[in-house]
Amino acid sequence: MMDEAKKMTREKKNGFKQQYIKETVFILSVLVLPIAWWAFGFFFVTGESIWLAFQAYNIDEERFVFVGLDNFVTVWKSISTGGELGICLKNSFMLWCISTFVTLPISLLISFALYKNVIGTNFYKVILFLPQVVSSMVWVLVFKYLVEYGVPEIFPNLYGDLSETGVALDFLQNPKTNLATLMFYQQWITLAGGMIIYTGAMSRVPVGLVEAGHLDGMTNMEEFVHITLPLIFPTLSVTLTTCVISIFSATLPTYQFYEGTSSTPLHMWTMGYYMFAKVMNGTSVDYPMVSTVSLVVTMIAAPITLFTRNMLEKYGPETEY
Amino acid sequence: MMKKISGIEKKERRSVFGIVATVLLGIYAASLIFPLLWAIYSSFLGRLDFKSDPIFGAPAIQGFQPSNFVQAFKELHVTVRTSSGGVRLAYFFEMVLNSVIWSVGSSVVAELSRCMCAYVVAKFRHHSWTRLVHSLVIILMIISFPSNLASSINFNKMVGMYDNMWLRIVGSISFTGAHFLFFYAAFRNLSWEYAEAAYMDGASNYTVMFRIMMPLVKTTFFALVLLDFITAWNDYSTSMVFMPSYPTVAYGLYKMQSLGGKFGSSVPLRLASCTVVILPTLIIFIIFKDKLMGNLALGGLKG
Predict the structure, then answer these.
(1) How many domains is chain A partitioned into structurally?
(2) Which terminus of chain B faces fewer neighbouring Cβ atoms within 10 Å, N or C?
(3) Which positions in chain B touch A245 (Cβ < 8 Å)?
(4) ipTM value greater than 0.95
């Protein structure tokens, strides 16, 4: 009797072991290729980026040579003296501030209005999704032609009046207005960007809770602040955390508007534009500086991101529903 | 079927918030529709009619010009370098073909691999390293690592993916990003009972994954593939940076800005090209809008 019980236990154990091995083989067969592929690319690209940050191209020797921290010093000088990189950093930070503190709250309010099923919600949902459906190149070109040909048709003297020299330059050509125009364009086109995610999260807020609040005389804005925002906080924290990553690398569609030409006015450059345009328009001589900038941006953004995430977890509302 | 509106919703619609929100949304929606309608209308105009009245002007001089679309098909081109060092012209049809192959291939490969990985991570959590993979996905989302375009180009050259669309499609295999978390959330919400019943009938792990569990998340899969497709169709930079010999229509539009000749002097012709490019994604969106805009669940970032 005892032997049989032991035998059964052993068989059971063997069965579990076999099942575990089978599962392990299955899991490995699914995960190994994507992870290995990612790891290969990740370590090569990250490794080379770090390596290049300490190199410079020696034209006489026609090869990269180790230059220690020289590139970092150059980057620091350019930032601290308000040079090329200082302008890029300032523009990126300004763009990030507008996106986070202006566009994101408006985007949340748009989603809340759609969640509250205002008149025409279904129609608005379709139209507001258009910026994601239609090619960004098409939006850029249509916006560009509207600014160039449409605005003077409606306001014939506007461009001449805005110009200091008297030569009529459109919003995208006039140095006084082109950066603001591009910033406006970027916010206008991304305003409803998180609509699906946010309305999805809001639709899972318990109806009973909202109805109870309204019976107690709660207004829609109070519902938004005291019920909706805390309950969609897990989703919102994803957006906020990923937003912080782009704090110093936020970019405008400058390359699309100005066809990536080197004549793009410097006061419109952002960090993202700098890193893209230097590689696309430059040569391998420019690679070390681009790598250094990317390393510096990461070194600044990474701790801020982690800090933000910890703060959001620590002080953000606890939501269980 | 029309959704019934409850009494509370009716009351809310008539509230100050409801009216103000409707008006503001209306203004924003109009600001999005107006440029597109303007572009489509203007693409039918002749060059002279457009010049005399660019904002919805009547086609008084040349009449409507549907031939703009034929010209856009015939004449929109980009210059491509050949492997022998020469140059050739790639026309619209080739760009559309490249766009279709790239958009379909890369989106299916990327989402299929993410879906499979998310299934394994979500349903085999008793294997500790699947939890590690989940944490890795989250870490990669919240920490940026130094990388730059130059090194990415070098990597692509090293593995033979540079200027090779087919290898790039295979290289789209992935397990990272927010889309992984969408699949993960979808699988976590699925009952394991379906799988248990199949295991009792002798099904293997692969059968359970491909024939039982993955069909249950097909709505999520379809929505994410469509989103990826639209992104890839609209992306001009991949073709420009990594596959210069495989120009896509979005890249064609980008290069159109610097084209001379008829394209250089005729805005309606350029807008006709834009209209042709937006049609496929617009049609897909109109057909599948309910699937695309369905609720995609995404949890927090607590790893």
Answers:
(1) 2
(2) N
(3) 142-144
(4) no
